[in-house]
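Page 47, continued from p. 46.
Same chain as before, 479 aa.
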Amino acid sequence: MLNTNDPAFNAYTQTRRAHWDAVARKRDSWRGWGGAYHRRIRDVYRHLVAPGQRVLEVCCGMGDLLAALEPQRGVGVDFSPEMIRRGRERHPEIEFVQADAHHLAAIEGPFDVIIFSDAVNDLWDVQTALEQARRLSHPQTRLILNLYSHLWQAVLSLAQALNLAAPMLEQNWLTLEDLSNLLSLAGFEVIRSWQEVLLPLPIPFLSAFFNRFLIRFWPFYHLALSNFVVARPQAEAVEEEPSVSIVIPARNEAGNIRSIFERVPRMGRRTELVFVEGHSRDDTYAVIEREIAAHPDIPSLLLRQTGIGKADAMRLGFAHASGDILMILDADLTVPPEDLPRFYRALCSRKGEFVNGVRLVYPMERQAMRPFNFLGNKFFSLAFSWLLGQPIKDTLCGTKVLWRRDYNLIVANRSYFGDFDPFGDFDLLFGAARLNLKIIDLPIRYRERAYGTTNISRWKHGWLLLKMVLFAARRIKFI
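Result:
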């Protein structure tokens, strides 16, 4: 615990408060060359933080970044009275609180997003400040930090000496490893980290090329000015037993329906089966009706799809599902229903917030996946892991599991991507990545189809997947 009576800490605080008061007054008539850098940082945060949330920014300065995020409730904390006074004048819609980052007892939470932007390198005790943020978090809170790279220390010092950048006092210059360790000690878990800003100058075309494209590749990202980290509170298991809805798209799967009713385990306080029948050429719809009647003890719902494609079927099923947890199970039963409790436990333990089935770890049954499909899945797993910033080993496994509340947020933000995905898998994956959900892979043993033939076209759908990579690059990676 921080010793607030430590004379060294008090001297440190007083010196920095006076310093940032002077910087605030300086900015009344001086701008420097940092505008392009701050605009880029603002754009990155606007990509990470959806409007309409409860957002706290610690060490907020005049609140320009916080205001740009359009929060439903925005609270800016800074210990500089000059910064706070100017912030209130510039952004009356933001709540400004004069307080030290190490003492946030006066702040009422919780918050959906907590931000430390270019702040942790200037703190006396980073762990204590992060512990204060942990107290103001709920289980779904996202903590987002960015900090200067040590590599730029000499460049920034020169810019300050030439009066081109705001002056700074001695900094901590934390590495990503240092910060990850401090986050863990404070009760947070890192979801992902990456680099931003290769060229912090307003040079037309060149700045965009360097900062949106070139920085995404080795070795250029090692030269970045700013390191970003997204973290969440460390996992705590869910105490209550949530209900489950299993959405089962079914097209030409009449021979598998009875097995679904016989094999799907009961989970949570209630397990519901939601069948979405999609223009079958066999009697799938009639078979589902008969099996529902034959199993009155199993809560079941049958929907007839009016649109086309698996994505449309999944959305229809989710819209009518009643469970706290939403699962997808392909009716071909190549993913064994008996594995679903493992997905349930992974979600309820909060080891992950989006559980993605993986078919590419264990050996498969002989006809479960054709060689070209296997190689294609390997390629796309690497591509999408790079694009999303989290390891995704198998993008097209039919079984994916998430909380209903998170699915509703994905739906609310769907306009960012649009209706682009005929499979449904990428709509969920991209949405989860943009919400900074913790995505976790869960390996399963992929089985041979016992009835019918696959609805996947190797070359047609492979081309669609390649277009997905380009789409994701434009909307997620090269922002």
